[in-house]
Amino acid sequence: MQIVLLGTAAGGGSPQWNCNCSVCASVRAHAAGTVFRTQSSVAISADGHNWFLLNASPDLRGQLERFAPLHPGKATKRDSRIEGVLLTNADLDHTLGLLLMREGGRIPVHATSKVRDALVHAISIGPVLEAFCGVKWIRPPRRLSPLRRRDGTESGLLYQVVGLRGKPPRFAPGAKTFSPGHSIGFRIQDQRTGGRLLFLPDVAGIEPPLIKSMSDCDVLLFDGTFWSEDEMRKSGVGQATAAAMGHWPMAGPNGSLKLLATLPVRHKVYVHLNNTNPVLLENSAEHRAVRRAGVTIGRDGMKLKI
User: Fold this and answer.
1) What are the two backbone dihedrals, phi and then psi, of residue 148, each rounded to the nearest 5 degrees?
2) Do 227 and 277 form a contact (C-beta atoms < 8 A)?
3) Cβ contact 219:197 at 8 Å
4) What is the pLDDT of residues 242-282, one digit of tens each?
């Protein structure tokens, strides 16, 4: 399985267009030890030709242009090597890229019924796409099952839902209430090599079944949104806590970093990094703490193969 991190930032990217926090200011000034990041999305493939997207970033067009294997083939005037999009939730930073795919054919979108309802009824992304290319909604399986291409043939990958505690996006009814089906992760396995990817960009908290699942993979792409619970307030950009926004912070005795450091996983990578997160500054103590724990801070364009 080939895994490419097309974008590694949370909503707004890094730097965010209207943000002058210490991280955004440093990135905008091209300070040493900083890099620009687009909003979170991942591409995966079993054969290097047929690809699937894990979430569709608002920065999708630029991400596709920077990765040649996702360019249209030379044999036809217009086509796409994207066989489908797997959504972990209905948040704008994971779904607005669908609108950028409207010039192509009908889009296979793998999403829970609650994510589909939010995109169809609360924000009308589904109806808008129906006026252009159309959407083929697919409910992802609870057990490992073939991930199929547009034509129905097997891709060489298996996939299944990883249930998470989550809540609807801000634009949907009940946006402050956590319940199943609003946020999920994906386990993906290469049928030929047995390589296993666990994609968890939005984790509100940890439970024993999830810990077991996190240990059983070769690549773990994990929620790196916030370093601390009150990061937004400390950065001077807002009052919302990490918990209220549905993210488990890295730091502290109960933070995700302490757990990730103990996991026997070959590649442990933080993705979906918020522009306020001090780990984005490579000369920071927080960045060094992540590296000492044996965890990687994802970068746009990073490639893994399992």
Assistant:
1) -100, 150
2) yes
3) yes
4) 999 999 999 999 999 999 999 999 999 999 999 999 999 99
Residues 6+ away with beta carbon under 8 Å from 208 = none
Please compute Rg for the chain using Cα positions: 18
Residue 270, phi then psi, degrees to nearest 5: -80, 130
Separation between Cα atoms, residue 227 and residue 245, nearest integer Å: 13
- Supply the pTM of this predicted model: 0.96
Q: How many residues does the chain have?
A: 306
Q: What are phi and psi of 4, to 5 degrees?
A: -125, 125
How would residue 174 be classed by pLDDT, with cut points 50, 70 and 90?
confident
Residue where the block lists tokens 């893994």: 304
**CB environment 2-39: b (16+ within 10 A), e (fewer):** bbbbbbbbbbbbbbbeebebebbebbbeeeeebeebbb
Instruction: Give the CA distances from residue 240 to residues 99, 226, 228, 231, 246, in Å, rounded to whole numbers and listed in that order.
Output: 29, 12, 12, 9, 10
How many Cα atoms are found within 13 Å in the side-chain-facing hemisphere of 55? 34
- At 247, give phi and psi (nearest 5°): -130, 140
